[in-house]
Structures are given as structure tokens and as C-alpha cells.
## 1
Amino acid sequence: MKTRISILFALLAAFGIAGCSDYLDLTPTDRITDKSVWEKEEYTDLYVNNFYEYLNIYGPFGSEQFNGNLTEGLTDTFKYGSTQLGSRAGDCNHYVFSPEVISPSGNLLDCWAPTYERIRRINEFLDAMTKYSHYSSEVNTRYEAQARFFRAFLYFQLARRYNGRAIIYTSLDQIVRDIDLASAAATWQFIYDDLMFAAQNLPDEWTSAHKGRTTSAAAYAMLSRVMLYAERWNDAKAAAEMVLASGKYSLTGKYADAWKGGNPESILEFNYLVTGPNHSWDRYMSMFWEYPNGSASTPTQEMVEEYEAADGTPVDWSPWHTAEGTTQYPPYEQLEPRFAATILYNGATWQGKTVENCAIVKRDEQIKPARVNIGTYTDYDSEPYPYGKTVTGYYLRKLRQESLTDLSNVASSSTWVEIRLAEVYLNHAEACYQLGLSGDAVQSLKAVRDRVGLPTDSSLSGEALFAALRHERKVELSYEGHLWWDMRRWRLAQQDYTGYRTHGIKIDLIDIYVDGYQAGNYKFTYVDCDGQDRKFLPRMYSLPVPDSELQNNSKIRQFDEWNF
């Protein structure tokens, strides 16, 4: 939403908004109760804009999902190339090789204190509205619906981390020492109630002056997501059907446009500006020759092999599973469209250049045309910080801004789409599957696959249907921040993310000269990108309550699995 966010920060500074405390402080404050916020709707709108920033903070462009890392780095789909601790460096490797380091005293996936601080701000806003607003009940309800949407969004961030439980707090008279975690049922119901209030009271569309704000359909779409985690299948199904029945959204013609925003598939998005707010996604995902300090974070061969052929048949990758290497070119161009839209492979085109993800070799400058590496391969553990180099033979294309060519001087301004129609279809499909409505599940699955020209087996049911749903979420929603959380809520993470390693394709350039020109060939070698097994501990299905909270809240108790 481009509605004057930069002005918002100046307004917040005037009210003295402070940073987060070390623990959940629910002490009432008067920091936002100044009557001037409620003198004009323009001022109130500026303050509400602050809530929309949460879409950025908890998304892959922000820092709150996993300390700036992608949670996909905890799965088989993404590999960070650094061996040294640090955000967008070796943190993910540390967590998958030695998850024992996660504890109540230190946890990079934790978002406890800042999230409750944001919830408090929303509660203060709602409290101030009852005291100072002179607007009509209709206008107040519109503000309340926006605030409760984002309060539900924040509580969802907590619930999916902490076993479905959270401290439910709405009154500014409550203090932290008096509140225990609510049950999972009560927590999910609280989130449901907030989202339903938002869905029933937000407009279907905003005027052009308020374009980009959350709508009734966005609240229903979010509810379809949240209720999957709550395992309230009927509620998830009903919410998804409200979005689908609205007729306001449609899948984009090209998958490559689906997450770019500003199109009929986008239900809720956060827009950035080059002048701010902006982000650094393209720098983090850059190739070696694009930016000197890229983070060397790349898709894995396991993810590549998840893609079907363009006709929907499986692809046999066994010829490339060889440590000796082969000169046979991989079937990249035979894969379904989502592959090339998501992953930069050796031979792909990027900014008008052909990508070569090869190990660096010396070249004879007298031979023309000279080759230029766009990407560069290096073995994992060969460099502490392999800035911008790939340890898998691939780079991530999805969510990147191809028009941005000066990464050193210009920040990224690509849109973050928080929720889009394809996810709603997949949420609906999963809810229908869980309710035994296989036919309806297949139809929603088919809607997503039809976009990329893939066939759908209409006879799917049972475990085969569930496997197809998991595959579709993994591919369609890749790198949008869903997979690791999905595997946890399905209780499949311990099974699938223990005792495995990720792999890549090392690409060596073999120079061949024809009539004085360099033609070139490649050798493709299957490589282990980890060097040791990964693991997922059962207690990671719930993250621990932070020690700082236990020390300041006499009512709260640590989860049993973290008492050791």
C-alpha cells in the first residue's frame, strides 16, 4: 500500500513510539492516546498504516519470520552457502545440523516480545477509539475491523509457533504477571472471532484514496489459512468459498506474474517504493557478478526434482545422480512452467544474458566471444562466506526484480503479496480433503494446475490425494514462507526432515574451440551440499516460551517438551 507510509513514521515519532521490551509488558501507556490522532480521519489513517507494515515484517522480505532467513532453509528446498553463523549466512545450517541449540534462552524463530508489543499497540488504538473518536459508528467500525484483522494476523504468528497457544489480552488494565497462556482452542477461537469481525465489516472495495487496504475477501482468505492450522476444516472451507464466490479475483494468465502484485490474483499485498519503504531481497538473492556481497542462498536439486515435465509426467533424474559427472544436459527446458519462473538454472536467461552457474575458470581473452559467468559455483564448506556464489548450481529467480540492474546503489521495491488466490484454492482443496470431499478437493487442485497446463487425475483420493496436495503447495507456493510451517502442522517434519541431506549439481565448463570460437560444453556432477545429516527434533513442533517471559510472568509455565 503506497498510501504515504513515509509520512506515517514522522507522525509516529511525534508520539514517541518506543522499541520492544525484553518481555511482554502489558502496562497501559498513553503513547497513542493523544486526541490529535482522532481529530481527523486523515491522521487516524496514517496511524493505521503502521499496522500494514506487519505484512512486510513477517514476510520473506522482512526480519521477523526467522531473523531475516527464509524458513525454506530449514527444508530440503533451499540451501544457505555459508558455514559461519549469521543472518542469511550459516544460521539455517546451524539449526538443521544442530537443532539442539534452540532453547528458551535463544531462538531465532522466536517473535514473542515484538509481536506482543505490536498487539499492545493495536489494543491501545482500540481503547483510544472508544475514548476520543467523534466519528460515526460506521467509520469506527471500519477502523476496528482493520485493527482486529491485524491483531488476528499477529496472534496467528504466535499460535503457529507456540503449539496453538497465546496470551489473550485485550484490556489495558491487564498486566503480564496475571495472564497465562490460553488453550489452543481458545486461542484459535479468538483469532477466528477477530477475522470474522473483519470479514463482516470491511468493505468489498475501498475508494481510490484508500486503495490497498485490507478487504472483506482478504479477511476470509486469511481465515482460510489460519483455520488449516487450527484443524477446523469446515471453517477453512467456508472461508475459502467466500473468497471464491466473490468473483473479484482470478488467477493470472502466467505463473511468473502471480506474486508480483497489482493483478487480479493478489488479495492482500504490501507495496514498496525505491525511496522507502524498500527492501534488499535482490541483493540477498543476487548472483556472483551482480553484487559483491550476496548471501549465497540457493534452491536445491531436491526442489528442482519436485517439478514435473510439461505434460505432467515424472522426470527421471537418475542419469545426473552420479559423482563421476555426465555431459548429458539436464532436462530443464522440458519441465513445467513454474520451474523456469522460480529457478535460475544453467542456460536460463536473466536480464538478457545467458546464465552460467559454473566453477570459475580462466579464459583466453583472444578467443571470441568471451564467456561471462552470471552465476558462479563453489563447493559448500570451501569458503566461509561464498558471497553470491551457488553451492547447488542454481539461483532463485522467484520474487526477484529483473528490471533492477544496479544492486549496489538501488534498493528493491518489488511488491510482497501476502495472500493470493492460488493459496485460497489450495486451502480449500486441503479442507475438502480432510472432510472427505475428494471431488471438491480435486476441482480446486485442478484450478491451480490448469494455469500451467498440467493435467489433474480426477480419481485422486486418500493418501494419493494428500500427497498431490502437498506437492502442489510445495511447488505453487515455493519460497513464499509456507513449506516449513506446513510440514510442522502436518506433523511430517520429524519424518521427512531427519536423516537427509540436500544436493546440487556442480557444473564444470569444458572448453571446445570451433574455428577459433569458444563453443563450450559442460560436465554435471551430483554433489552433497551438506556433508552431514540434517534433523528435526520432535519438540520443535512447538517453540519454547522465552526465559525472559518466564522470569516476568508468574502465571505462565514452560511447555513440557522444553522442560529439561
## 2
Amino acid sequence: MTPTKPVIVIGHKNPDTDSICAAICYAKLKEKLTGNEYVPCRAGQVNGETKYVLERFGVEAPRLVDSLEPRLYDVQYRQVGGISPHLSLKRAWEYMRDNNIQTIPVLEEHNQLRGILTLGDVARFYMEDQDANALAEAKTSYRNIVDALSGEMVVGDIDSHFTQGKVVVAAANPDVMEDYIAEHDMVILGNRYESQLCSIEMKAGCIIVGLGSKVSRTICKLAAEANCAIIASPLDTYACSKVINQAVPVRHVMRTKGLITFRYDDLVSDVKAAVSKKRVRYFPILDSSGAYMGLISQRNLLDMEHQQVILVDHNEKDQAVDGIRSAEVVEVIDHHRIDAVETSNPIYFRNQPLGCTCTIVALMYQENQVEIDATTAGLLCSAILSDTLMFRSPTCTIIDQQVAKMLAAIAGIDITEHATAMFNAGSRLGDRSPDEIFHMDYKPYSAAGKSLAVAQVASVSQSELHRLRELMIPYLKNLLPNSGLDMLFLMLTNIIDETTELLFVGAGTEEIVRAAFHRDCEANSVVLPGVVSRKKQMMSPLIGAIENAAE
């Protein structure tokens, strides 16, 4: 099935070069293979190393996505225009009928919402309002009255309003009429000259002459002198009395209190919770300035199309962009351990024990006989060099090295020079705060009921790493109490020496580190020669020690 909106291709939170480049290159491959639209995205800020790579090959950073939680702008809402508060109920009903809708917004200038009119409000007005003063109470315009009666204004100003009196049907003879016609009343009558004259003499505010009868010049003159309006209608007296209240303006019937509205960027989950027990069909959506945009129904919320997502360089829900449970994961391309990302349907899941996700992506280009251009090759090669620490990481395989060399040839880059420039760009940490440094490459984990996070900073400068050690230990101690985690770890990795100094804070961490790596620890740190890979050399012994300590 062809998706109706673009599929998002996205890596993990706190993205590294592999995560960003895999999203860009795999989205490009999918578009070439399917002809559909795939959009590379990122779940965090671009680090210095990745920024250098993107600028080196002239590629823009993917769009930042903070959350996949759907918002109202992701829902197909109904774009029904609003009506003026001065519009008659007759025209409002016709608008409802023509648009097959039972709720319409009432708008003022600049699309500002003033009220809501529903079919139930209209029915309630007709069934419950027996007041003959309704037209005057609503200050109904004569233009609306003429329109409701399908008539014409014979005497009077059509742009004036009927503001005093009641509506009277003159069915009796003139002698009786004198007893119930009061000053300013609106009188519905026929073609009897005596009844018309009597109404004018009783100081009626308006007379409605039905049956298409011609109004005499004398009556018109007398009415004008008495300041009495005359409306001629082709309808009979019964029909006039039946439809007259359709002239009432919408503002008299609409609801203005307790309106339930939503902003276009509200979370769908919040909206569903708010409307679940409401017996209202449609709810107005407003933009950031409060202007009306359209109407949304509970059915729209239920029929909402979920955002389709392809995960690259991760498959763990704790590392995924926020709101991943609200999206539909359709593919996973990864090289890490397999975790429980739940899907509603079978999906394409490719996981290989290689040093980099971009190695897998490059292989998929070759398998599908899709040409790799120089820019794509540069991005893929950069990611492999980054993830394998220029082939020094124990996660690196012969396949990673072979693919990287092939890509370097296409991109026209020298592997050693390019990798050194990348690592130097990523090592410029002097202007970054401790919090930024810790979260540059940060991943959460859980084991034996304990929650922990392991971050990594790689550099070619030992002096810079030593400076970080003095800076980051106090930072980790201050961060832990409010982090919601039990343990914090930071790997300070020297790429050239292939050594990591592991910093740690949290109850029992020293015992766990000692058990995991069989080395004596200093206060909050231990030096681990030959350890450069978080995935292959750090996490397995660390989690094993935590689980053993819990037994």
C-alpha cells in the first residue's frame, strides 16, 4: 500500500554520525526503489563531528523531530468555513444542509471564533421558543426578515433593525385588532385595506402584506408618514407566520459559553481524552493566534493515519525518539543487540553484526544495483570511520573495512586524512558545557531493575581528555540525584592510544566496575586499555556485573 504521507527515516536520540548518515542515505535509497517520499530526520542535535561531515559533502542536516506523538495538524480535519453572527437562521440552515454538517462556527473579523451553532440549537429554538418577541429581542435586521419571507421592502430602510414589539397575525376584523395590536408591533396580514389601515393607525412598527398582494399608494404614503415599515411577501399568512422566526440572527441562538476548542498543535492523545465523554460531534481547531482553522470530529481522531517510521542504527524503545509508540514502525536497519520494539504487523528487520549501520546501507545499495554517487559515498564512508574509530574498534569487521575503502574511492577521499579531520572536529569541546558534552553520545540502559546511562566522548587529544576528567566527575555527581537514574557512566576514549578512562557515579558502581573489568579503581574512575567500543567492550561486562550483583 502506498503511504499517503512521507515515511520518516530516523536514528536514535543524541545522534552520532552513523545515525545521521544512515537516515539520509537510506531515505535516498528507499525513494529510488519505491518512488515514494522518505524524509530523513534526527532525534537530537548534530554533534561537531557530524556537522563537519555534512558540511564537507554539502548536505543539510536532517529535520529535527522532538516527538512522533501525533498532533492535530496530523489529523485530516474538516475545513468548513464559518458564518457571520448576523446571518439569519434560514441561511445558516441552508449552509448546514449544503455542506452536510450539523455544526458551524460563528466568526468575527480575522476568523476569530465568537460562538458555535449546531442543528440541535436551531431545533431547540423552534421547539422551545414560543415568544412572539423573539425578533425584537434578537434585534433582527429587516434585510433578514425580507429574505426569510422571500419578499421585498416596500416602505422603510432595509438596513434598519426591528428592535421593539411582538409579531401579531391579523386574522380578525379591524374592531378586534385594536385590542391586541400595540405600538411597534409587526403585523402579518392579507390584502384587506381596512386591516392595513388599522395597523398603521395603531402605530405598528411594520406590516407584512402576504399573498403577493399589491400595496396601495395610499397605504404606502400613510405608513411612511407614521414611520411604519411595509414588507410585501408572496407567501400566505400561515406561511409568513411559520417562517418569520427564520430571520432571527445566528448570534441570538448560538452558544458562546463552555465552548470546547483545541489548538492545531495539541497532542491527539490529550484531545481524545478531553472529548471521549462529550456528546458533541465537532470541535473547532484554532491556530496559534486563536483564529479558526476547521472542525474536527471524534471519527477523525479514530481514523487518523499513523506516521510510518523506519528506525536506523537502533531498535531499542528507550533510545528511540519520543512518541514512537504512537507511530507505525515499518522497517528497522541496525547493527546493535536486538531489543523489544513492538510492531502491529510483520516488518522488514535487518540486523547484522557489523561495525556500522552505514555498512549495511551501502551493501543494500549494491544488492539492489543502485549506483552510489560521490556525496552518498562520502557520508557512508564517514559513518563507518566514525563508528569503527578508523577500524580500531573491536566491532569493526573485514566487511566494514572493505566497504569503507570502496566508498572512499568513489568519494575521492583519503581515509586517514578524512578520519583525522573528523575526529578533530568532534574533539573541539572547549566551548561546550558539561551537560552538552555528556549528552553528545548518550544512551540509556536498564538491567536487573537498575536504570543507567553510558555516554562516550572520543578524542585524539589526551590533554583534552584529562581536562574533561576534572570537569566531568563533579558534574556527574551533581547530575545523578535529579536524573531519575541509579548509575551514570562516561567513557573518555583516546582514539589514537585505543584506551578509555571510565568515569562512574552511583551506589555500588565501583564494585560493579571492578567486577566487570577486573581492575583496581580510583575514586570514580578506572583506566581500561584496549577498550574503545561501548557496544562490544563496555555494555556486556557492565550489564553482566550488575545482574550478578543483584542475585
## 3
Amino acid sequence: MKFGSLKSFADSKRVKYGTLNVVFVAVIVAIVIMLNSIVTVLSDAFSWYLDMTEEQLYTVSEPLVELLKTVSEDVDIDIIFCCDKDEAQKNYSNLETGNALAYVHSTATQIAERLDNVSVIYKDPVKDYEFMRRFTTVSSQLKPSESTVIIARKDENGNYGTFYRTYHATSFYTFAEDALGGTSIYGYSGERVFATAVLSLTQDKVPTVYFVTGHGEDIPYSTETDFEIPAIAKIYMDCGFEVRYIDLSDKQFTCKTVNCGESWGYLEVNKLEKLTCDKCSKEYKLKDIEAEFTEDRQIPASARTLIINQPDSDYTASELNKISDYLIMGKGTVMCFTDPVGSDVKEHPLKNLYDFIRQETGVTVLDSEVVKDPSSTSLGASNDFRGNIADNNAAETYLSALQNFGSTKPMLNNSGILEIDKRYSQVVNGEYGYNDRAAQRYTLPLVETNANALYGTQSGKHTVMSVTSFTTIKDNEPAYSYFVVCPSGGFVEDDYLSSAVYSNDGIILALIHSTTALTVPVNLDFKTFANYELDITSKEATTVFVCLVTIMPLLIIACGVFVIVRRKNR
């Protein structure tokens, strides 16, 4: 081809505008790639995202922000990640192996953005050893590592002291049993962990819950090689309570080591503390203690809650009198969970306790049968049943803090039923319930069976949890105590209380809130990973459809028309 022909071809409109089109497309593609890279980097650095999941998996909830504003406005809180920022905000992956900091970091940074008194800082356990030393002095807490998060409160001098909580990354998640019999991560419960940590760090006086021991009860205990803590105790601990034990009998313990003979009385044992003989160093579980009656003791006036959790043997008159005195004293709560004994028992093992409950609350515990639900397909088959929140003033008063009040369904296992004396549940001449010289008692059901559940051959609604309020006059002011009765130890078993699909823990939290007047994270439920559906309205879906199907093609057509017009006018 001659040079003139090449020049003529290069100067032709086809080549000129064809080249312009190629350059134009290349520039546009380059700009799009560059913008995408810039936005990706910035979104990772500043957590830019639009959370369209149904449960708002990636967005901090307003109830959490409001709760933290209420309880922590007068203190400074630091959320300390034991790694650098890049490590803390890694992609949301590898949750099963413990590298789960990204969700936690997202929650922490959002809280810090919303609250002026909360800061997020990053420290290396090795490089910042001197700083981290202050968080390794409490033996019962987790030692800092790259997978831990420390939530700490500063005192008026800017020091942390002992005001901190240490969590492993997996503590911010809820686990459930999988199809293979193992456990897998089910949801994210980080908001509740943050809330309970801050609540426990900002309370002026740490409340105490006492677990009664001495009758085979299910209680927390610890030794050097053996550790157990029921889910109900963990709920109280997460709410900032100090968990302690109390033996109501008048007794003193004698060490059983040969030639030791050391003896001591004990009123209460701190959470996770080993019970050790000072003389021979032998360690004991509280469940194994046998003692002789030698000294008198009472329930401390500071006890906010007393829990009787599935006893095997009966209580003495002396022990029950102490519980009665505690209730009449005011400002206390007793929660009693028992297991049915069946119809084959000649002499009831808890006769004294049940007589006491009937005398104090008007509630008769019937447990010769076990409630069955033929339609149940859950853990315990026909001995499991879904309960219903009772439709009365008691439920409205004590359980209204539940987020889904009225539709919340707890699960009960191996349960008897309760009968309430009408005198205790009626209002006569403006007076609520039953009155005597010591206190006014008013009892109503909280949880009932569903329509399919059977007690023996009786179907219909049966009461399976009740609450009694005690009103006494103390220093010319009313004082209130509460007695919660549930004839189902399964209600507070770990499989049910810590399950991701039952509301049992929500009911316990609501009762803690309503009977102790303490702020607890009752509305901060976990967010499930199982549901990634986009939660958008029809209007929003239509808008997205129009953008993708109409606007983009119109823009392309407009660009084409512009090029054609320009070509014809040249």
C-alpha cells in the first residue's frame, strides 16, 4: 500500500472515529477499574457498606447504643484489640478457627463512633508487654493473646485497675449442634457481650446471686482439673452479678484426709474459687461436702437473688425458715427449679420444700406425671413442649422487657404442673392476693403449656411457671420480694437455656430485670448467620430493577447517539 493511501486511510472518518471510540472505551474502563479499587480500599479502611440483611448483621443496633449511653456516660471505656488494626478487621472468614475478630471490630468501631466516651485501641501482647501486664493479674480471667479483646474502664486518674473484662474472639458468637453431632457457629452475639461487659464495669455495687448447696443442687464449681458452670450461672455472671454459694444448714466442714482433722465453717464461696484445706491442701467440690451441724447462719441481706436449682434431697425446717425470713425482709428474689419425681415414689423427696412453697405462695407443685407433647420433635421428643407466655398482668409486668413479648416461645423438658390457690390470685376489695400480718402475697402464672400438651390424660393450658410478689412495709416504705417456681429443671438446663432457637434465656433475663430493677441486655439477641436474605421492600426492589434494566441502557444509548451526531456534524 502506498504512503498516500495509508495517509488517506488514517485520515478517514472510519479510522478517526473508530480509534476515538476505542480510546473512549479504554479510558472509561480504566476509570471504572481505578474507582472500584479506590472505593474497595476506602471501604475496607473506613468500613463503608450498606447492610441490607434482614437481621442487620453488620450494623450496631439502636437498643445497644441507648443502653451504653445510659449506663456509661460518666466513665471512659476502652475496647482493646490485642493486635494491629489490619489484623482486627480481616475479612469475615475463618470463624470456625477462631479468627473471628472482624465482626467484633466492626461492632466496636461503630460503638466508638456513636459514643464520645468509648475508644478503640490496638496493642501487641509482645511489643506492648508493659501495657498488657495490668491485664494478667486476675487469675480467673483469660490471658491476652492475638485472639482476645479487652473491654476496660478507666478510673478518675485514667488507670484501668481491676475494671476490665477479657474475652476470646469466639466468646462473641453463639454455637449450635450440627448434623454431624458437633458444634458450629450459628450466630453473632457480640452486642450482648459488649453490653454485659460495660454493665458489669459501671455498676457502683456488684450485685450477688447465691446458689443454694447441700442438697445435690446443680451449682457452679471448680477445682484444678475439673470445672463446671451451668448456663443459668453464666447468664447472671454476664449481667455483672457475682456468683456465690450458700449452705443454709448450720454446719461445719471437717477435712477427710487421714490424720488431718482440719475443720472450718463456711458461709459462702466465691465464684470459681477452689475449696481447699489450709492444713493438707486437699481440694473439694461443694457437691461432695458432708458436714456436721454446729453453727447458725443466715442469708446475707445483700443477696439480690437466691437460686434453688434441681435439689435431690429435702430442706430442713431451719433452712426453710431462713428463706422465709429473706422474703419477708424485702428486696430479694428466690428462683426455684425442680424435677418431677414420677408416680412410683412412696414418700416425696421434696415434701418439706413443696409444703413451704404452698404455704408461702399458694402454689401446689404436681409432679407425679410428666407433661407430654405428642407433636414435639425437639431434643427430648415427647417430654419436650413449647410453652406459652401467660396472658395476664404478671406476664406484662415481669416479661414485657422481652423483645417479642406475646410471641416468645420457651421450651420446657420433663415438667410437672402448678396449681395456684385462688385466694392468692384474686383481687378482693382492692386488695391483691392473700394477706397476713407479715406480707401481702399475689401469685399469677407466667408460662403455660400449649394446647397439645398433656398432663396425664388432661389436655389444655396448665401453669408451668409462676411468680409471687411479696409486699412488706419496711421503715414505713413498701419493700418487694419475689418467688419464681418452675417444676422443670430442664428449663434451665444448658441445652435449653443456651440454645439459639429457644427463648428460655430471654425469660431469665427479663425476670432479672423486673425483680432486681437492674439494667440488663434483655433485648440484645444474637443475629443468625443462617439467614443472608436481603431485607428490602417492593419499592426498593423496583428502584433497583429500574436502575439495572432501564437507566444503564439509556445511558449507553445516549452515549451512542452523542457519538453519531458528532460524526455527522464533522
## 4
Amino acid sequence: MSFTLGRPRLRSVPSRGLAAAPLLLAAACGSDVEDVPPDVVLARHVHTDLYDAYPGIPSPYGDRVVFADYAADRRSLTVYDVATGDRVVTSTQGGRSRVTWSPDGSRVVYVDRHSDRHGVWTLDPTTGRESRIVDPGDARIDYPRLLTDGTVTALRYAGADTAWVAYAPGPDRAASVVVGRAGGWIAPVRSSDGRSVAYLRATGGRADLAVTEIASGETRTLAAGLQLGWDRRVEWSPTGGALHLAAAGIDDSLFVAWRVPVDRAPAERLEHSGRDVLAVTPLADGRVALSVYHTRTAVGLVPVTGGEPADVTTAGSTSAFLPSWHPAGGGLGFITFSWRRVRMPIDFDLGVLDLDAEGAPAGTVRTLLSEEGEDYGAAWSPDGRWLAFHSHMVQSDDIWLVPVGGSERPARLTHFGPGADTGEPDWSPDGRTLAFSSHGPPLEENPGSVYTVAVDPPTGFAVGDPVRVPLDGFEGYAMGARFSPDGERLAFYGRSFEDGRVTVYTVPAAGGTPTAVVSFANGEPYSAPEWSVDGTALFYSRNDGFGPFQVWRVDIPTGATEQVTTGVLGALQPSVSPDGRTLAVTMREAAIEVVALATGSTVAEDGSGGW
């Protein structure tokens, strides 16, 4: 008998915060309640990408935490020493994922997906040395686990066959099939006694949690209807009596931690501060560690001369990003949304905030455009009549146009359709052309290109099909496009195929050989470089693979650079005001905290024992 993870069947187990709430309760009740130590943040990692925020995984003893992250298109690993805060970062190109630890905590274990490195690897968290311990040959493997005796278990994919296999210790690493029919399995992990394997089983867009007895093949489904995050894992409790995982039940709007007893007792859920929990790791000392996702975005204003941006949009609960200016300078447009990783793709809308004559916010955020699906990148035409934006209406991935303040339905300017990935548009100074980037279908060999589409200003109709701007000699992903103030050139980001480095380029608006302006390790790929009003400089976002993004300025004639924004939240996606004095930026926090809950610090709402 199985059950579905929904609210009616479960005990809710709240997490204590960092404040000493037990002392307050004891004083109020006059009881002898024992003081419980607070939860402990083991490590905090600022991610380089807003969406691909992967959980931190602590070692069994909680002395180190490893994070997988994108940095300059390398799937890097960062290992933090909890006591000192020191970190070790991988430096080579790789496709590292499915990160776990060896049972004694001496090595990080993971699979590398790059074709020339594919296999199971380990990382020494002290020296940073990486070693491949399983080479699967022509097969593909996933979800590796290193056992105490040196055996490696993993899912092996060979053609249409999927098996859960064990690679024996020793230099030859002979493989044996443990379970031959493992199609649809996700994240299998063996119990400490070696008798059972727990795993997630994909079913109808969701997943079930199951345990199979290896000798008999008997299978029990412990939970059904789970929605999983991007990094999927299951962990056995130290005693083997329960399974731990992060998932969303049917009624959940957040990913939460779950403890699911293998004896089919009611599952327990653990929420933490209204945040998404991306991974749950039982520690050797009996504590439970949660990998908690912290993210928020807001639009801020900062002088072009530099400083820390001032938040102007987060008076309510709605997040905002990717700002753009009204051509008269009297308002800011941006994307609004309520962030939940469970709700992907997100339903974006376009919001607007009016500004007074001094450039200060006037009033509250109001909706500028709300269509079903993703409305992205509001761009006013120079005369203020039209609003161009990217949207997924009618299952497209295209540029649309709508009159500002009118009742007409948006008109579709391009027809890339599903499967493409189109960025936000930018108007030419004369209001007759839109520039943008797109990659993927329907065009073959289109990893990322810059396009323009001509627009008839009186009617808002497209004048012909979009035209791919020739980028002679350029090899890489072209991302974003911005017209120079005189309309003669376009600026865009280019990401190298070879090493993932990002370069800011300019190119004649009609196409030609791009000119590299500045190159750096890691760039923000969701917008485009922004011109200064005099056309002599470009603003861009970078973080060199670690820490929050900040906005930088590069002088085009000399190549000299300077950091413009400061602040712990970071800043990206710069947009220059029409008078050239102010930058609107996206202020963003995208970090993971790994929190070790105090032993005995979880109590069920009905007063019975917690975890």
C-alpha cells in the first residue's frame, strides 16, 4: 500500500530558526525545558547562475560542504572547509554532476558527463586532485555511489537497456549487474546492510519512492506523486529505518524535506523559513542537514558613476528583474513574477513603476502587460507608442508587439516557434527595427545568433521576416543585442565554444566582422551589454566565476575597465536612463545555505517525537 505525498496524510515538522525560541518558551511556562542548541549554517555559496542553483552536499561528518556550479560554462566544484571557510575549486573543464561523498568523508564522488572524461571521479577536498575511478567505456553511467569496501554502484545505460550495476574494487573494476531491469530508476542508493536499494521511479511527469529487496526482487512503493528538483537524490538514515529526500508533494508550492519511514508509517515534512529545500543529508552524528535555496530579485537604481544600487521595487512580495526605461525617462519597465522552483516555467508578467521629475519612484508597481505564459523584456519604442517583448504565447518563442495602453491583442513579429530560445528585443533609435538574439529551431546550426526584424511604425506590423545578422569569423553563442545610440552598431555577448569565456563584441548593424571589446571568465547570459548615451562605453555584468555579479564599464577606444556597482546582493542587467545619468539594474541574490539542524530540534505539531 502506498500513499501520495499531500498535506492530509502527513505530520508537519517545523524547523527552528537561529533565534533561541526554546528559552523564551521555558521562561514563559516556568518549565525545566532543556536548552536546545540552534541550527548551524555549515556553508553558504553564491551561485553564478540564477536558475541552475544546485544544492550543497555536506560530508558525513559535516566538516566540509561541496557545491556544483556553472562557472564560465565549466561545471565546477567548490568545497568549503566548515571550520575555516577555506575553499578548493576545480579548475579544469568538465561536466561534473551527481555529487556525493565517500562514506568516510575523505573524497567527493561524482560523475563527469564530458565525452573525454565520462565516468566516475573523485576529488580530494584538501589538495583538489581529481582521479577517475570508473571508466565505463561505451556505456553511459549516472548516479554513482562509493561504498565502504571500494565498490561503486551506478545506473548503466547501454542502448535501450538500463541496469543498476556494481563496479568491484581494484584496478580492473569488473562490473556486475545487481538489478537488470532498472528502466525509469532515478538516484538509486543501497542500504547500509546491502539488502535493499531505494530509488525514485519516474511516472507520468512525477516520481514514486520505492524500495526493492535485492535478493527477492520484492518492491514496496513508499510514496507517490512527487515532484523533483533538478538535482535528485535519496539518502538512507543512519539506522536504515527511513529515507530522506527533497521533493514537492501534490499540494506543495515549495520543495521541502521529507523523512519517509520504510515501515510505511506516516511521512514527515520539514519546511525551513519559507524557502525551497533542495537536498536532505543525514549526518553521522544524528543531525539532518538541509540545502536551502535563497533567491530574490529587485530592480535598483544607481548613478552611472558607481555605488550600491537602491531597491525601488520590493515594497510587495513580487520579484522584479531585467529593467528597461521609458523613452521619456518617466518610468521603468521590468519583468515581475513570484518565484517558486516548483512552478517552472514561471508565469512572467511585465510591470511598470512611474518615476517623478527627480527620478524617484512615484506610486507602486503596476501591471503593464499580463499574458498567459512568459512575457519577457519590455521595450518601449522611441516614440512611446509600442511595447515590444518576448513571449511564449500560442506555444511560440517569439517577439511580439502591442500598443501601449491600448486594448488590441499583441501581434506576433517572428515565427521561431517551440524549441527556440529567443531573448528580449531592443529598438533602433529611429523606431524602425528591433534587434534580438535567438538560438535553436527552426533554423539548423543555430547555437546562438543575432537577428533584426523591420517594423512599420504606424501599424506595428513586421516588414518581412527576421534577418540573421552576419557575424563573420565568429564562433560561439551570440547572446543579446543592443543598438548603439546612433544606430550604426550592435553590441552583444559571445560565449566561446572552446572554453566558455564571455566576450563583449560590437558589430556593424548590417553585419560584418565583430570587434572584441573585453573578455572575462563568467558573464551574465540573460540580457545584453548596454551602451552609454554617448556611445563611447559599454556596461556589462561579470563575476569571474565566484561571488555575486557586479556591473562593470569598459571604455571602447582604450579597453580600460572599472567596476560600477557594489553591494552584497550584486547587480546585473544594466539599463541606462535616457539622460545617461542613472543605471537601472537587477539586484539579485542566488545562494545556497547548508543548515545542520540541531539534534532533537524538530518536534511534530501533535507533540510527539520528531525526527
